[in-house]
């Protein structure tokens, strides 16, 4: 099940894409308040955003991005109905992809 | 409509599963998949080291053409909304840095040809500090900064 929520809206020739992912984004520096043990790092390292199989933007992240990350970007040249694909890969090799269409 | 969406989502997760299998089978090593994830830069403890590694230099020129939208006071350092936008042309990448964080480099965005130099996300900040946006064009690095006061840090336990 994909947990990436994507909204892509065309306005004045620019497409604004907003996405919301669900991920704990642990930095590896935080201590668990109950066990006092360091919570291992677990964060999204890379998000690749594509439109019609063309890479529009690649985001590289550290654990400094807030949990359940929000990402928004814009690009020109999109048309209503074009597919938008967003996929992330985290430091544990997990990956997830979400797809939506420009409205 | 809901059902159509569900189909798409299922397709998407199937595709993701295939990549996962490929990684598991050693067809794609994780380091290959993330060739552009710069470990040295993201683990760097200070801003110059991070920028040198990420962009090849830490010499940035302050430019007011870079707009940083962030709150003046963030009540919760764990979630600080930051938007970076610029009217500079030929932007290749945008990096977001919080200079008092243990590892200051938070994110870097590599823009494709059609991308507009605009990114928005939410970041964690350990304490009151500058949020610095660094914009890389073909030949130069430009930056701008905005101070965000943090009342509760977002990086500790």
What structural keywords apply?
heterodimer, A: mainly beta, Immunoglobulin-like, 4-stranded antiparallel sheet, 7 strands, B: alpha+beta, 3-stranded antiparallel sheet, about 35% strand
Any guess at the CATH architecture of the largest domain in chain B?
Sandwich
Overall 3D shape of chain A:
elongated
CATH class of chain A: Mainly Beta
Report how far the terminal alpha carbons of chain A are from each other. Answer: 23 Å
Q: Which class of secondary structure composition applies to the elements of chain A?
A: mainly beta
The CATH topology of the largest domain in chain B:
Immunoglobulin-like
Sheet-strand content of chain A, in percent, reads: over 45%
**Which ranges of chain B are low-confidence, i.e. pLDDT below 50, for 5 or more consecutive residues?**
22-33
* Ends apart, CA distance between termini of chain B: 43 Å
**Tally of discrete structural domains of chain A:** 1
Largest interface: A-B, 48 and 48 residues
Helix-strand sequence of chain B: HHHHEEEEEEEEE
Name the helicity range of chain A.
Answer: under 10%
Average of per-residue pLDDT values of chain B = 83
